[in-house]
Amino acid sequence: MARKFDAGYYVSEGFRSIFTHGFMSFAAVCMIVACLIIMGSFTLLAVNLDSMLGDLEDENELAVYVDETYTEEQARAMSPKIKAVPNVASANFVTRQAALDQWRAGRENNELLADLPGEVLRDRFYVHIVDIEQIAQTKADLEALEGVGYVGAAIEVAEGFVLVRNIATGVALALVGMLLIISLFIIANTIKLATFYRREEIAIMKMCGATDGFIQWPFVVEGMLLGLTGAVVAFFAQWGLYQLVSKLVIQSNGLSLVTMASYESMVGTILPVFCGVGAAIGVGGSLLAIRKFLQV
Amino acid sequence: MIRLIDIYKEYDNGTKALKGVNVRIDDGEFVFLVGPSGSGKSTLIKLITAEIAPTEGRLMVNGYNLTNITPRQVPYMRRTLGIIFQDFRLIEKKTVHENLSFSMRAIGASNRELKRRIPYVLQLVGLEQKANRYPGELSGGEQQRVAIARALVNNPSMIIADEPTGNLDPQRSLEIMMLLERINELGTTVLVVTHEKNLVNRFDKRVVAIENGRIISDRTGGYYNGEKI
């Protein structure tokens, strides 16, 4: 008799099984949708938190004060050397007079400041850095440059941002990981219930001489189809939920302190990730569920 | 061919089910395996179908050495056997034809092979008119004939029937046994596990008697130990 990989048979059996055990299939899809939405919500929360922390980090800059004996021309000439320091993203030169003017802004009525000469402040560069975790090293590198008098950097604040971001990322990753494992077992148990009704069929196939692969393939197809269906449903449900939350955040956030990334900009990432995770937990759950029944 | 040489089987709980069993069943034979409950009959069948492994001894089934068979080889060994159960084990949601095609599909048969083989086997067991019926619509005897057809459909070299008449009345039991005898006459080895003395005595066949994990008699004619079974 023919011994071949009958893909058509496996796919048709997988489809047939979904509809034959309609209620269990519905339950499995619901579980996948719930698990993906919970995981997706935590991930989106982490992404937005990360984005907001990133914005705050961007506002964290170093002030590089030039030696007060340098002329403005000499100070301006330092720009290439400062930009060449590792981890420096940009450096904006501000003259001592411009700095004083900025400082005076809003203090026009203070007579004590009226006669202050420009020389009271120094020429300076406001430096943005690439990686905030390297701020201490960058500060040291800038201080080592000839002509730099002093570097002002809020290192403790920067380290605070890094700590918060690392904790948030760690917590999000741990939660998503835990949810993934929990989802796998929930799906495995749901599919195990469906498989339980078919243990007699499996036992008969085993007694007829069916290989484990032959028995498993329709279950793999079924798990994948359920996973993908759940993923697509979860993707759209997540979209609706995210839009709703975004709207509420914007309404209660008059000062726009909290910004949220748009779901549309993440569609290209979310849909493939949902499909991949959905298919993986569907197939993984099927294989976990059927393993026990194959030991005949 | 089945060959059991000094087979011992002890379960994890310490039960010694088989204690040095030696049996040889050649191709084309019809053999009854008889014995009371707990005598070791079921363990012997489980060993032959590779559901369990012997603790000691050598076991050969249709050219496969089950003493050191790999898990990958087990399905191929089972394809040489057709197994019939007391409770029929038919899939209720499938028709008679579907039950048979399901069994053939399990070993990778093509549609052409299904179309050729299933009508022949249904005719052999006298159920060609009931191919589209569901098991629930059939009598017990008819259901067991479907089970026999399913065991035969993959053209095994040996049929193992585990208490095939346990759920049937005497007349249906006789019919089933006569059907198995006919299948044997067509060249298939048949091993029937039973404890129905009257039925065994109606057929002049080889009878292997097992008791307390040991073979206590192996002779033709329905007798063992000098007494009628």
In short, what is this structure?
The complex is a heterodimer of chains A (296) and B (229). Chain A is of the alpha+beta class and 296 residues long. Chain A has helices at 7-20, 22-59, 72-76, 79-83, 96-104, 135-143, 155-197, 199-208, 212-251, 267-291, and strands spanning 62-66, 88-94, 124-129, 148-152.
What does this structure look like?
The complex is a heterodimer of chains A (296) and B (229). Chain A contains ten helices and four strands. Chain A has 296 residues and is of the alpha+beta class. A four-stranded antiparallel beta sheet of chain A has the order 2-3-1-4. The two termini of chain A are 23 Å apart. With 229 residues, chain B is of the alpha/beta class. Chain B contains seven helices and twelve strands. Chain B has helices at residues 41-48, 74-78, 96-105, 111-124, 140-153, 170-185, 197-201, and strands at residues 2-10, 16-25, 30-34, 56-61, 64-65, 81-84, 158-162, 189-194, 206-211, 214-220, 223-224, 227-228. In chain B, β9 (206-211) and β10 form a beta hairpin. Chain B is globular. The mean pLDDT of chain B is 91. The chains are: A alpha+beta (296), B alpha/beta (229). Chain A binds chain B through residues 1-4, 6, 9, 20, 200-201, 203-212, 214-215, 296, and chain B through 49, 51, 72, 75-79, 81, 83, 89, 91, 93, 102-110, 113, 150, 154.
